[in-house]
Amino acid sequence: MLISRIEMFIEVVRHESFAGAARKLGVSGPAVTKQVQALEEALGVKLLYRTTRKVTLTEEGAIYFERVEKAIDDLAEAEQTIQELKACPTGRLKVNAPMSFGSQYLAGPIAEFAQRYPDVALEVDFDDRWVDVIGEGFDVVIRIGTLKDSSLVARKLGDCPLVMCIAPDCVAKYGPIDRIEQLAEYPAVVYTKHGQTEDWRYIAPSGEHGSVKLRRAFAGNSAPMQVAACKQGLGIAVLPIFAVWEDLQSGALQQVLPDYQSYPVRGIYAVFPQNRHLSTRVRLFVDWMSEVNQRFPWLP
């Protein structure tokens, strides 16, 4: 069979010898030699240079090896996926998400996932710190923000813009905000975690980028604390949409300068280690998170 010949060829290249490939495959050396020769004859090209010391690739062999190695790996991955889908997913699944977002929007859906797949041992960590995904052994991490280039895989679940908010009492006390220049004159509730500063970066309606330094009046390291302070009229606040959506709908908070967009644009992502053979439990959980985003009321 052609695939068997290709697999033998791949092992010969990896081991740089027919004997090494034969030991790995559990067959005789002559059998491997015969199959590789048959492959060369079928292709009409010489794939390998043979010496008494080792085996090396010809130019045509190098091109062929690069293509078929990936193809065989893809076939193995497809077979594993099918076999896993036939069985109920099992094993530990360690998940991390931001505290306030996780508590508000993910606790219920994650519990539903656990109920749906009882043989998956979920370990859920809601924490606002920036965890080391690989170093701490997390299978999936939900992150909000802008992602840096890394070896991790990320699937976007939706947008999560930061919006400038103000309470009606604050408007009554200091007056409405109609111009970007007014922001520096207002007291502000600022976020102190993850290196945040008083500078608010924005994109103007014209598309121009700019920034303004807010006047700190109150500081907090969690979204609920910022929301509470803002609702008390302590100042304007730049807050994630998930934390203020209901207050904006009820009128408890108002959006300031809605034509201005916080920059950089932030999203919600499911992040997980890169792995050609992704486990079914991780794949199912990430797929479930992608379905859950339909419950985020601020998304269209």
UniProtKB/TrEMBL annotation:
List the molecular function annotations (GO) for this entry. Answer: DNA-binding transcription factor activity; sequence-specific DNA binding
Q: Cite the Gene3D superfamilies for this sequence.
A: 3.40.190.290, Winged helix-like DNA-binding domain superfamily/Winged helix DNA-binding domain (1.10.10.10)
Show the InterPro entries listed in the entry. LysR-type_TF_proteobact-type, LysR_HTH_N, LysR_subst-bd, WH-like_DNA-bd_sf, WH_DNA-bd_sf
- Has the keyword Methyltransferase been applied to this entry? no
The UniProt record lists the keyword Lyase: no
Q: Which domain of life is it from?
A: Bacteria
Boundaries of each HTH lysR-type domain copy?
A: 1-58
**Any one biological process term the GO annotation gives:** DNA-templated transcription
Keywords, alphabetical? DNA-binding, Transcription, Transcription regulation
What the record says about family reads:
Belongs to the LysR transcriptional regulatory family.
Name the chain's protein: LysR family transcriptional regulator
